[in-house]
Amino acid sequence: MKPEVLDEAVAEKEILDLMRSDKARAFDLMVDVYGPMLYRYARRMCGNNHDADDSLQETFLIAQEKFGQFRQEGKLRNWLFRITGNSCLQRHRKSKGQVTSELRLDDILPTQEPSYEDAADGPNSTWQKDPVEQLLDSEMMARLEEAVAKVPVTNRSVLILRDLEGLSTRETAEALDITEETVKVRLHRARAFIRNTIAKYYEGRE
């Protein structure tokens, strides 16, 4: 019977405690707690179930092998998101026929960055007035999912973590191993891409 997990912080502490005495139970609990959110992330990043399944499996294998590298001042969830994101990026690069050495997201950020006021966390953000959670119309949700899948992969990872998984700017930066400023820039670009894609769809129907 799977343990019922009510609080992520409590679960993380239990996992870390179990790592000292019963690693098998610790990783079983890790899969139960973080598996669903990591799979959602991988599915949206990879765009198909097969690669998402493989990335999720790879995530937990790497976590087992490299758990000693986890810095416990950060959140375990964010560390796992980083592993999953790297796995998805590797698969994306393979599909493009590129070299598959480990990729840091900062390495491919363009040097020219536009204004990103809309990506701020404050209540005056335009996107905050129209969040994903408020798009209740089923057709709009379908178009939104299609638009998310078309967002360039490095910006997509930020969009998914911030707007769909609910991580803060700081947590997203930690999960992707990038700066908070980079998170804001990429989030601004991703949100603008979504807005433009949705607008073009409805303009084409008129």
Task: Estimate the global geometry from the Cα principal axes.
Answer: elongated
Question: From the alpha-carbon coordinates, what is the Rg to the nearest angstrom?
Answer: 18 Å
Instruction: Report the total helices.
Output: 8
Q: State the major sheet.
A: none
- pLDDT < 50 stretches: 1-5, 97-129
CATH superfamily of the largest domain: Winged helix-like DNA-binding domain superfamily/Winged helix DNA-binding domain
Helix content: 55-70%
Looking at how many chains there are and whether they match, the oligomeric state comes to: single chain
Structural class: mainly alpha
* CATH domain class name of the largest domain: Mainly Alpha
Question: The CATH topology of the largest domain is what?
Answer: Arc Repressor Mutant, subunit A
Report the span from N to C terminus. Answer: 54 Å
Mean pLDDT: 78
Q: Which second-level CATH architecture of the largest domain applies?
A: Orthogonal Bundle
Describe, in plain words, how this protein is organized in 3D.
Helices cover 64% and strands 0% of the residues. The chain is mainly α and 206 residues long. The radius of gyration is 18 Å and the shape is elongated.
Write the layout of secondary structure elements.
Elements: H1 8-18, H2 23-46, H3 49-65, H4 76-95, H5 138-150, H6 153-164, H7 169-176, H8 180-205
Quick rundown:
The protein is an all-alpha fold and 206 residues long. It has helices spanning 8-18, 23-46, 49-65, 76-95, 138-150, 153-164, 169-176, 180-205. The longest helix has 26 residues, at 180-205.
